[in-house]
Design goal:
Blueprint (H helix, E strand, L loop, with lengths): L4 H7 L4 E4 L5 H13 L3 E4 L4 H7 L5 E3 L9 H7 L7 H9 L11 H9 L8 H29 L12 H9 L11 H15 L3 H8 L4 H13 L24 H16 L1 H13 L11
Parallel strand pairs: 1-2
Antiparallel strand pairs: 1-3
Helix pairs in contact: 2-4, 2-9, 6-7, 7-12, 8-11
Length: 292
């Protein structure tokens, strides 16, 4: 683990810098945690060069001006005041992300989803540059997922609802949250996964909506949406009640620039594919999307 003291001390006097796209469940978990704790932060959807050369496009990443980048969502959440997630809960959380590999079943839908991610920069020039460059991050993720599907398949369970039964049973004993009266690391990570499933709809979303065995899960989703009604990155609002403010989409201009970037990445295929391989090699953990 990472020592908590430096970052916690700095959080009271400076904003946290966060890198990541809100389609990632682990980025979502961190942003949800920061929102819940009312900690100030700045968000960028493009990795700073120093971070890119060190760890590739791995996300989330978070730091303050005087602390190193932290690269694990569980560590970051602990640093801002949430408890450690149990091994059993973590295994269930990783298991509940099955179905994510279907995000790339339709290439246009995948890239269109990423084009809609809003960049928070107040500078028009910076925002457009970020949208252009973020197309490479999307290209990287698309190739990574398609490679995993090619070699390993999608690993679909017989019933996507089964992977949420652990939490359904846990909510029978707790409530309204997995952490009891307040949100826990497990709540944030599982809700982050639901945001991921909702940002580009995949088969587990249907199970979450309709499986008659998951009534407690749907009640929990409603409680989480009510708690995070003013949160800026909520994708699940389109699929679950209560209907609250959904994530704001990027402007038409921003999306057009993103698509120009995506086209450039495909035209420069002989360059961008080796670059993807080089950056993937910088990741210090197994390249598997079921890891946070």
């Amino acid at each position: 683990g990472v020592s908590a003291s430096p970052l916690i001390k700095k959080l009271g006097v400076t904003k946290m810098q966060v890198y990541g796209a809100d389609h990632s469940p682990w980025v979502q978990a961190v942003l949800l945690g920061l929102h819940d704790k009312k900690h100030a932060y700045t968000l960028t959807t493009v990795p700073p060069l120093a971070l890119l050369f060190k760890s590739g496009v791995m996300m989330p990443a978070a730091k303050t001006s005087d602390t190193p980048w932290l690269l694990e969502s569980a560590d970051i959440l602990q640093q801002i005041g949430f408890g450690e997630v149990s091994r059993q809960d973590m295994e269930a959380i990783n298991h509940s992300w099955r179905g994510v590999l279907h995000r790339t079943d339709r290439a246009f839908r995948f890239f269109n989803g990423f084009s809609r991610i809003r960049d928070p920069s107040s500078s028009i020039t910076t925002r457009l540059l970020h949208h252009f460059l973020r197309s490479f991050v999307s290209f990287y993720m698309f190739l990574l997922i398609r490679t995993l599907v090619f070699f390993r398949g999608t690993g679909d369970p017989d019933n996507f609802g089964d992977q949420f039964l652990y939490f359904e049973h846990k909510l029978n004993e707790a409530g309204p949250f997995l952490g009891g009266a307040s949100t826990s690391t497990a709540d944030l990570m599982l809700f982050g996964i639901i945001q991921c499933h909702s940002s580009i709809p995949v088969p587990p979303l249907k199970a979450l909506q309709d499986d008659p065995r998951l009534n407690k899960i749907r009640t929990w989703i409603a409680a989480m949406q009510a708690r995070f009604a003013d949160y800026e990155h909520l994708y699940s609002s389109r699929f679950f009640h209560p209907s609250v403010k959904p994530a704001e989409s990027a402007t038409v201009t921003d999306r057009t620039v993103f698509w120009l970037g995506a086209l450039t990445m495909f035209i420069l295929f002989p360059v961008t594919v080796p670059l993807v391989a080089i950056l993937a090699g910088k990741v210090k953990r197994p390249l598997h999307p079921l890891k946070n």
